[in-house]
Amino acid sequence: MQTESIKTEQLTRAYKGKKKADPSVIALDQVDLSVYEGELFGLLGPNGAGKTTLIKILTTLLLPTSGKALVAGFDVDKEAQKIKPLINMVSGGEESGYGILTVVETIWMFSQFYGIPNKVAKERIDKLLEVVGLKDNAKTKVYKLSTGMRQKMNFARGFVSDPKIIFLDEPMLGLDVEAARTCRKFIKNWLNENPTRTVLLTTHYLVEADELCDRIAIINHGKIVACDTPDNLKLLVQREPIFQLETTMMQNEIDEFKQMAGVIDLTYSHNIDKSTTSFRMRLSKEEVIAKIIGTLTKHNLKIISLEKREPSLEDVFIKLVGKKIEEEDA
Amino acid sequence: MRDSIILNLRAVWARAYVRIVGANREPSWIIAETLLPLFSLSAYVFLYKAIDAPAQFIGFVILGGTMTAYWIAILWGMAAQFYWEKTSGQFALYLIAPMSRMAILMGMAVGGFFMTTIRAVATLIIGCLIFRVEFQVVSWVYLILIFLLSMVALYGMGMMFASLFLLWGREVQHLTNLLQEPIYLFSGFYFPVKCLGTWVSSFASLIPLTLGLDGMRQCLFGQAKAMGFMSFKLEVLILLGMDIVFLYLAGKMHRIMEYKGKKEGTLTTRWQ
Ligand SMILES: Nc1ncnc2c1ncn2[C@@H]1O[C@H](COP(=O)(O)OP(=O)(O)OP(=O)(O)O)[C@@H](O)[C@H]1O
Ligand SMILES: [Mg+2]
Q1: Which of B36, B33, B13, B35 is CA-nearest to residue B23?
Q2: CA–centroid distance, residue B173 to ligand 2 (Å)
Q3: Both ends of chain A: CA-CA distance in Å?
Q4: Contact between residue A169 and residue A89 where contact means Cβ atoms under 8 Å apart
Q5: Nearest CA of chain A to the CA of B101: how many Å?
Q6: A223: helix, coil or strand?
Q7: Do residues B212 and B155 make contact, with C-beta atoms less than 8 angstroms apart?
């Protein structure tokens, strides 16, 4: 029997509207979720889906409106004090710390809030800075750091208390590809070092989630719409073929394709420079593609490339949520 | 229990460290903050000289002018602090950590007090040298006692404000500004508070610096006894009471604020 690190039952959170008369926003709607020790659990959802709200409740920053949430077996409402020594959190884009301190001092300061002896803290900080690639900047004052470097520091800060459960809310935000890769590797190793650790991660990068997560929950409008391993999630779109198609630039013909019988969903983007349009569409059966090619010819649109795709998490996401996952403020 | 004490002491020191080290990295600030109070208190000194006020008034002004540093430190370094830290996301990280919130407030207070004292002492020494103040110390013990007691009460008040300001949100800036100058008047920074009459003085005594200043003046300048608002021994008792009440209220307000914030979702910024 696996041990539950995180468990929610009918967890609901509503926020009051801005003005008194406004209706309240239901950020989480009767969420039932179990995350087990040793898991790297991903939370995917479009902007405003309720991911951060869930993390705030689990990190004891916010109370549930109704329902229950347990972290390491403790109730977030009544036993917050027992949860705190066991957890930590890293959020993308946070500006914590004091500009006047150096990187090492900042992380040391946070380690002290968890009562870590100086010697242990120092060793951990050295190691973490090495991992995130901030070693050369250990003595740099925080206000001089670039956004990416700052995020690396935050990342190190989250792990310095050696938490049992870590909450990572868009932790790679602002990191360059190389740094993000190192951090991903670190997260994996960190979990493997000790089987009682747990990671809960939210991200907008579906490839990252696919590569990293043992299980993924897709959340939309405060509800969990699917929760499974990445491979099992992909089975949801397995039977419906997915095609990637590039044509010369379209104007208004797109709607026609969207409404065509046999097209389950379709997303597209224009490339102004190349004057082309790219499609990704999921069809009810393979034969529909013939009809699409026919229609393209009718409109005098040229096919530049056409390929059948392996189902990806993005396809699952679009099927379940009805749109692409947006990049943060892109 | 023992672990919890060590944890909280570490937290106090870590938070104080930011202030102590931070301030030393900006020496220009220290100079500015030492000199600025000197300018405004000099104005009063010249005024008193011009109207031939009793000699001890010069000492009064210098002591008062020195103490303004603590009032500013409370407003900007304590009261408004959590609000600023909330916008940076720092506050959320305090809240998820296991140490007591009071440890953070204590750390801010200890570090702030240390730094402010360095500046205040510099102001005091320079002021006394320039204007040749003569002291006639009545009681060192009471002087130090009154100073320390009024500081505890003052920082306790700053801790209370920190929680209140967090709830008030964006009005903080105005409120802090609004509180700064009038208190110089009501607490008698530049003249004996007794001049304001019993009613106003009593009301002003809610600010611990009022009685603290009054008592310290009585201890420092022998002739000042007649200008004291009340006996400095009584002031010690009142200040002690304030210490207890303010610290208790600070803890309580913080718990209320945290609960309310967790319920309403106002403890953290929305865009995180
Ligand atoms: N403090 C708050 N007060 C009122 N409404 C809020 C508050 N915080 C979040 N919301 C609302 O609750 C909903 C869920 O927000 P949340 O931040 O949890 O989403 P998210 O999934 O983290 O989104 P993103 O991907 O943009 O980070 C949104 O509609 C948001 O506007
Ligand atoms: Mg979010």
Answers
A1: B33
A2: 28
A3: 43
A4: yes
A5: 10
A6: strand
A7: no
Q: How far apart are CA B160 and CA B253, in angstroms?
A: 7
Q: Which atom of ligand 1 is nearest to the CA of A55?
A: 18
Cα–Cα distance for residue pair B268/A6, rounded to 1 Å = 22
Residues of A with CB under 8 A from a CB of B: 15-16, 52, 56, 59-63, 81, 84-85, 87-89, 91, 93-98, 100-101, 105, 108-110, 112-116, 141, 161, 169
Which of B66, B208, B52 shows the shortest CA–CA distance to B130?
B66
Only one residue has tokens 């597209």, namely A268
Q: Which of A206, A251, A199 is nearest to A233 (CA)?
A: A206
Phi, psi of A196 (to 5 degrees): -95, 0
Q: What is the pLDDT of residues A293-327, one digit of tens each?
A: 888 888 888 888 988 888 888 888 888 888 777 64
Q: Which of left, alpha, beta for B184 (phi over 0: left; psi -120 to 50: alpha)?
A: alpha
Tokens of B262: 């967790």
Residue of A nearest to B6 (CA): A115
Reading across the β-sheet that carries A40-44, which strands appear in turn? A87-91, A165-169, A198-202, A40-44, A215-220, A223-228
Element housing A283 (H / E): strand A276-283
Query: Measured between alpha carbons, how far is B42 from B66 in angstroms, rounded to an integer?
Result: 11
Query: Rounded to an integer, what distance in angstroms lies between the CA atom of residue A308 and that of residue B141?
Result: 88
Half-sphere exposure of A62 (CA within 13 A, CB side): 26
Rounded to an integer, the average pLDDT of B204-230 is: 85
Mode of pairing for the β-strands spanning A40-44 and A215-220? parallel
Is the Cβ–Cβ distance between B258 and B267 less than 8 Å?
A: yes
- What the block records as the tokens of A83 is 């949860």
Determine whether the interchain pair B21/A110 forms a contact, defined as Cβ–Cβ distance below 8 Å: no
Q: For B207-241, give the DSSP string.
A: SHHHHHHHHHHHHHBGGGGGG-SS-HHHHHHHHHH
Side chain identity at residue B37, one-letter code: P
pTM of the model: 0.87
CA angle B158, B159, B165 (to 5 degrees): 80
For A64-183, list the strands marked E by DSSP.
66-71, 74-75, 87-91, 165-169
Whole-angstrom Cα distance, residue B191 to residue A292? 90
What's the pLDDT tens digit per position in B5-21? 999 999 999 999 998 88
Contact between B133 and B58 under an 8 Å Cβ cutoff? The reply is: yes
- Cβ neighbour number for residue B147 with a 10 Å cutoff: 18
Give Dmax (Cα) for chain A. 74
Predicted ipTM? Answer: 0.88
Residue A102's CB is within 10 A of a number of other CB atoms, namely 18
Q: What are the tens digits of pLDDT across the range A150-188?
A: 999 999 999 999 999 999 999 988 888 888 888 999 999
For residue A97, list chain B residues with Cβ-Cβ distance below 8 A. 90
- 3-class secondary-structure state, position A232: helix
What secondary structure does DSSP assign to B131-198, as a single string?
HT---B-S-HHHHHHHHHHHHHHHHHHHHHHHHHHHHHGGGHHHHHHHHHHHHHHHTTSSS-GGGG-H
Q: Which two tokens stand for residue B253?
A: 């307000």
Extract long-range pairs of A284-287: CB within 8 Å, 24+ residues apart.
A284/A240, A285/A240, A285/A241, A286/A241, A287/A262
